[in-house]
Amino acid sequence: MSLHKPKVVIVGLGYIGLPTAAVLASGGHDVVGVDVIPRVVEGINRGEVHIVEPDLDGLVRSAVMSGRLHAVLVAEPADIYLIAVPTPFKNGHQPDLTYIEEAARAIAPHLRSGNLVILESTSPVGTTEKLAAWLAAERSDLAFPSGPQSRTDINLAYCPERVLPGNIVTELVNNDRVIGGLTPQCAARARKFYESFVRGQCIETDARTAELTKLTENSFRDVNIAFANELSLICDELGINVWELIELANRHPRVNVLKPGPGVGGHCIAVDPWFIVDSAPGSARLIRVAREVNISKPEWVIEKVAAAAKLTQHRLGREVVVACLGLAFKANIDDLRESPSLEIVARIAELRLACRLLVVEPYVEALPTLLSANALVEFVELDVALTEADVVVLLVDHVQFRSVAREALEGRTVIDTRGIWR
Fold first, then answer.
1. pLDDT (tens digit per residue) in 397-410
2. Which residue from 13, 22, 173, 409 lies 20 to 30 Å from 47 (Cα-Cα)?
3. Is 99 left (phi over 0), alpha (psi -120 to 50) or beta?
4. Domain total in the chain
């Protein structure tokens, strides 16, 4: 191979694929991004981004203008293929690997001996082996790894992303990476690639261990959030301020209780623990219960809103206006995937707990389809919501909501699921 940096094809231009493409292109790689959505491809080729992420828009624009990054609908020949497609679940929390299988079929015609294929999508244990099998079924003329010492024409590895939405660009470069190969040779080849742009430590292991490492990281978070959410239920039942309780408990030098919320969302923490439960259902008891606790929290919030609306209606002698602040799954981003806030707002609308339901979400331009078809729901600015609402429900601790003056909430019933207005 010549001294130039290898050409990289990235399949999937979402919250991980697009930032990775931009970072690689800015570092000198020729990068081709592949996505099945025409408007995403067209927008990127104009230097535009379709997601909200600090610093990403300028990085993409610069990469496109330099000629190092462009997007297409169909994969093409490259030296390295990186798969970053969604892995949702289906049929009672069973992993859905359809997008990975489709990605395998998309790149298979272009593979040649010496290529490196890396799976970054969060996946159940054994998925990288399935990827190898899917590729082998398409390309019988090439040898794929079938064991630690097997001969292979194509190197396959698994390297999960481990970034925080809102800080993705920085963490893609600075965080340590766990790189699992189907053979030691595969791991070493992938590590060399990541070391070309990652400042954190790149650690080699086998693919199965790398797959479970990612699931473990997010399950650890989920279990700890479930503990905080369960504490909030207990405190409500016992008449104790959960926020004060956690502050006091955290004064212990070896205690660090997280803060509760309306539930758990996002493409990782709300999904990944189920992959472990599906793989080892008899053993993953604590992980399963933690998921159940977090899944149940939105319904508890809805019950609080229903009770508040009823009391307020009785006090005012008329139907009430409810304002819900935030739809994203976490603060200061536009990501609505698996968002408990979106679930809560949809249920409030479905149950008709108000005569008008005002929704504020500063990081999206329009209501999602789930809400836009309901005539009860209005998409408004924050000042309108605070002026017209009788009941205010804080669901996401966006920076815009943190700055709300306490005087603006006077005379209104407030349900603060994030503890920023206590």
1. 999 999 999 999 99
2. 173
3. alpha
4. 2
Are the beta carbons of 169 and 55 closer than 8 angstroms? yes
Distance CA(313)–CA(321), nearest Å, equals 9
CATH number, position 189: 3.40.50.720
Range list of H helices, 108-183: 127-138, 168-174
Could you tell me if 54 and 167 lie in one domain? yes
Could you tell me if 287 and 223 are in contact, meaning their C-beta atoms sit under 8 angstroms apart?
A: yes
Asked if the structure places residue 244 within a domain, the reply is no
- pLDDT confidence tier of residue 47, bands split at 50, 70 and 90: very high
Same domain, 117 and 189: yes
Q: Which residues are catalytic?
A: 214, 268
> What span, in angstroms and rounded, lies between the C-alpha atoms of 118 and 126?
14
Please identify which residue in the block is written with the tokens 């999602």.
368
Residue 123 structure tokens: 């996946």
- Identity of residue 358: L
What is the rounded CA–CA span in Å between residue 135 and residue 143?
A: 10
Its pTM stands at: 0.90
d(CA 68, CA 199): 21
Render the burial of 320-337: b for 16+ CB within 10 Å, e for the rest: bbbbbbbbbbbbbbbbbb
Which amino acid, 232?
Answer: S
Residue spans of alpha helices (H) in 75-206: 98-107, 127-138, 168-174, 184-194
Provide the token pair at 136.
Answer: 């082998």
The tokens for 346 are 């949809």
